[in-house]
Write a structure and sequence with these properties.
single chain; mainly alpha; globular
């Protein structure tokens, strides 16, 4: 992580020296690299105890409630949406979709996946937060459908499947959940015919795919010409028009957009070293937290919630990983949440704490004076 930040920073400084950098490049460095990596490092300390993690879980559930309700209101009662800029058609490009306060249906969907997974974890517990968590768990799939964004749909599907395969109970319930999801989706589309028509249009549209192919091909040309340095951090949008070529079988409609593949985009701007470092960070960070086993603690252990957090991370990281392959991931919150959750799950490894063995559990409780009795018996 440090090496990638240093490489991107040096590339940005080089661009500033040449007069080619702007404020957006500086903010992008902070949003996409520095802040996520810092949060990954501090999350094991900030959320070291159960109380802090419970607070995070409730916060994510409340955020999910707001985003899910807002997503529904955007289409059925726009006048009730708060803040009102969310439904301002002059802002953003995803008008007509559930885009939330991000003004981006993809960012809204990715955060909803994370919050929905957190709500499912909270719904499995007893207590006063359970009713809200159940409502969020039910509303989240509806809100995800209303994003009308293919990367969100595919990412959410992959996230649910991969997370379910990690848990024996969820694995058995996966076919039932699939049937229920299809039924609910079918009912919603049948009840709102206009929504079904828009969803069909989103599934079959090719213009956005053509734009992605154009800029991704341009990134490959840059990588071929500048394999070690790229064009500089944050420079692709400014330079892309020089590298886009008219294809024989699809049009050029937009060239000043970012590469719609994050590892390819990092490589185009930082060269192959930058792309390799980014992939290494993801594999050794969030994806390692998903792949490495978290030992189950006995009930009552202070950390018996960590396996559940791994499931939340799995759903979030899978959806985020799918989006990273088909979009630039310009909005920071989905990335920040994935790296925070990875830090939570990898707490013991990052802090150098030995994990308990399968046989270990909490120390047996002694009755008052029990320790003295044990010592006297040993004598």
């Amino acid at each position: 992580m440090v090496a990638l930040v240093l490489l991107a920073t040096s590339s940005l400084v080089w661009r500033i020296g040449g007069g080619g950098a702007d404020a957006d490049s500086v903010f992008a460095l902070a949003d996409r690299l520095v802040v996520p990596f810092v949060l990954f490092a501090v999350a094991p300390v900030v959320f070291a105890d159960r109380a802090a993690r419970d607070l995070l879980l409730r916060g994510l559930t409340c955020l999910g409630a707001y985003l899910a309700v807002t997503s529904v209101l955007e289409l059925v009662a726009p006048a009730w949406v708060v803040p009102s800029y969310v439904v301002d058609p002059s802002l953003g490009i995803h008008v007509g979709r559930a885009r939330g306060p991000f003004l981006s249906s993809e960012a809204n969907g990715l955060v909803l996946v994370t919050c929905g997974a957190a709500a499912c974890l909270l719904a499995g517990r007893r207590g006063g937060w359970r009713p809200l968590a159940l409502v969020v768990a039910v509303l989240t799939p509806v809100a995800l459908l209303l994003t009308l964004t293919r990367s969100v749909w595919l990412g959410a599907l992959v996230g649910v499947v991969v997370a379910s395969l990690q848990h024996p109970v969820l694995r058995r319930l996966l076919p039932v959940a699939a049937v229920a999801g299809l039924l609910v989706g079918g009912v919603i589309l049948a009840a709102v015919p206009s929504l079904g028509a828009v969803a069909q249009e989103r599934l079959t549209t090719t213009r956005s795919l053509d734009d992605r192919r154009n800029v991704n091909d341009a990134a490959l040309r840059i990588l071929e010409a500048h394999p070690l340095t790229g064009v500089g951090w944050g420079a692709f949008v400014r330079e892309s028009h020089e590298w886009v070529r008219q294809a024989d079988d699809y049009p050029v409609t937009n060239v000043r957009i970012e590469v719609h593949n994050v590892p390819l985009g990092r490589s185009a701007e930082l060269g192959l070293p930058g792309g390799v470092l980014w992939v290494a960070v993801v594999l050794l960070g969030p994806f390692a937290a998903v792949a490495l086993p978290v030992r189950r603690r006995p009930p009552g252990d202070a950390d018996d919630d960590l396996p559940g957090w791994r499931l939340v991370l799995t759903a979030a990281a899978a959806a985020w990983g799918v989006a990273a392959l088909v979009s630039p991931l310009t909005h920071p919150l989905p990335t920040l949440l994935v790296f925070v959750l990875a830090g939570v799950v990898l707490r013991d490894r990052l802090l150098g704490r030995p994990e308990p063995t399968a046989e270990e559990g909490p120390p047996p409780r002694q009755p008052p004076g029990g320790e003295l009795i044990s010592r006297s018996r040993r004598r």
